[in-house]
Fold this sequence. Notes:
CATH class of the domain at 10-199 and 228-262 and 333-348: Alpha Beta
Structural class: alpha/beta
Order of helices and strands: EHEHEHEHEEHEEHEEHHEHEHHEHH
Bound molecules: nicotinamide-adenine-dinucleotide, the ligand C[C@@H](CO)CCC[C@@H](C)[C@H]1CC[C@H]2[C@@H]3[C@H](O)C=C4C[C@@H](O)CC[C@]4(C)[C@H]3CC[C@]12C
Helix content: 25-40%
Mean pLDDT: 94
Radius of gyration: 20 Å
Amino acid sequence: MAACAEAPELVYLVTGGCGFLGEHVVRMLLEQEPRLRELRVFDLRLSPWLEELKTGPVQVTAIQGDVTQAHEVAAAVSGAHVVIHTAGVVDVFGRVSPETIYKVNVQGTQNVIEACVQMGTRFLVHTSSMEVVGPNIKGQPFHRGDEDTPYEAVHKHPYPQSKAQAERLVLEANGREVRGGLTLVTCALRPTGIYGEGHQIMRDFYRQGLRLGGRLFRAVPASVEHGRVYVGNVAWMHVLVARELEQRAALMGGQVYFCYDQSPYKSYEDFNMEFLGPCGLRLVGTRPLLPHWLLVLLTALNTLLQWLLRPLVLYAPLLNPYTLAMANTTFTVSTNKAQRHFGYKPLFSWEVSRARTILWLQGKEGSAQ
Ligand SMILES: NC(=O)c1ccc[n+]([C@@H]2O[C@H](COP(=O)([O-])OP(=O)(O)OC[C@H]3O[C@@H](n4cnc5c(N)ncnc54)[C@H](O)[C@@H]3O)[C@@H](O)[C@H]2O)c1
Ligand SMILES: C[C@@H](CO)CCC[C@@H](C)[C@H]1CC[C@H]2[C@@H]3[C@H](O)C=C4C[C@@H](O)CC[C@]4(C)[C@H]3CC[C@]12C
């Protein structure tokens, strides 16, 4: 992938490039990768903002396609030097069937790997997730852990199961021979809960708070810490990994990296209040207002309702047994592996990440829709 200093010559493909994270990766590449000649944005649904990117010096090619269709993926990968694979179904609410989650997240990832092999593309960066590790079904805390912290990773939910399987495929593909005789270099990034401009769940909480007269009610103990990372920093990590993968193939190939920055360790709800507070919302209660057993009962009721209503309507509330367990289990990361391996330092401070997210929530700024 050696690029000459004068003429940009690299072709990048970003799958899922119109999603929450994908959009930030696309914009970050255009800002921070001077060697870029063409940027292919591949997504099931193409966003209108892509049009405005087409007027810049880098050729931006929008490709409407489906990662579950091997031939569409192969056509998009053909001639690309680097693939950043962020496409995936993110669903822990029962909105999407387990079959579809598996098809997109696992089969889709396999298609991307095979396309790289077939087309001679050597560098593959995969967006994995903290959920590949945990929280596990036993609700055991993962406190300031790193990539080597022992933890019993046992999943039952289709989303973490699919992400774990996809990550394994990507790591196992490292070192495979690609067309032309060279080898594939892969690695996986594991963001914790991503926040920032375009974060729909944050917006859902904001709207819910507005509906409840500017209040949200504490459901999770403040002592349970939940790892969060700013979307701009996650995007920056992807760009850096993609850039460094060739020079540091022996070190980085087949590796996993948690995504981290200076965002504070807080409970899921207290962290959200860093943004929702300045937007006028209040979190009521210093302790959970409902006892835990009642919340568990409510989640069971939601599960039953979801099942009963399925033939008529999709009922998929934020609260279900899995999301309650996630919110109630400490999962935080403390590592410097990305700094050691490829010189990562967060591009956005906590203050800037917070300010940008607040402005977006208030509808005053921000690139994401
Ligand atoms: N949001 C988070 O907190 C978080 C945390 C850790 C990891 N991740 C991972 O990051 C990646 C991006 O997540 P996100 O939050 O931006 O989700 P998102 O839903 O906003 O983006 C996913 C994108 O993939 C596209 N896509 C879905 N199915 C596709 C298919 N069959 N073919 C082509 N494109 C398809 C969607 O249209 C969407 O644009 C996912 O792989 C997810 O597992 C997300
Ligand atoms: C008890 C509720 C009352 O306030 C709070 C429920 C919060 C949940 C909806 C969220 C708690 C943890 C979130 C997940 C976590 O941040 C990490 C994730 C990994 C990523 O790969 C996808 C998103 C998610 C599963 C994220 C989804 C929302 C939560 C379960």
